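User: Here's a structure from my thesis project, written as structure tokens. My advisor, Dr. K., wants to see whether a designed sequence matches the one we expressed. Can you design one independently, without my sequence as a hint?
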């Protein structure tokens, strides 16, 4: 059997803050998950996304140390309904206190694009095709 890609994992310093951020982007994560050390959610298309706290990772790997905040080694992109939705999502997230890394712009590859940081500094892209 050939392995198949199944899960995106995020290690977080603050589970509740991270889950709140991704809920704002439409992921369905139960509120009671905020206090758990490991959380999983189904994504469209059958993939899963999971979060683990720093402490959870350390519990099975005592030598593990978190990388620099926002080290840029994880890329997540969320397709928005329209270019105006990219602007609206960016405004809502930055208005809620999340760091905007790049304000919405029309990218040369034919998409409206913006970049925000999640609570752990991971960059999250918002995009929509330009008409």
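Assistant: Designed independently from the structure alone:
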């Amino acid at each position: 059997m050939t392995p198949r890609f199944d899960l995106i994992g995020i290690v977080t310093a603050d589970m509740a803050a991270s889950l709140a951020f991704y809920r704002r982007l439409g992921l369905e994560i139960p509120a009671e998950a905020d206090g758990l050390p490991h959380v999983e959610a189904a994504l469209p298309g059958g993939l899963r996304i999971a979060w683990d706290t720093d402490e959870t990772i350390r519990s099975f790997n005592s030598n593990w140390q978190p990388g620099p905040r926002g080290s840029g080694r994880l890329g997540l992109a969320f397709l928005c309904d329209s270019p105006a939705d990219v602007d609206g999502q960016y405004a809502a997230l930055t208005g809620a206190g999340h760091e905007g890394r790049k304000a919405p712009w029309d990218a040369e590859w034919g998409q409206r694009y913006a970049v925000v940081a999640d609570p752990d500094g991971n960059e999250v892209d918002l995009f929509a095709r330009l008409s």
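When you compare it with your expressed construct, this may help: The chain has two domains: 1-63, 75-131.
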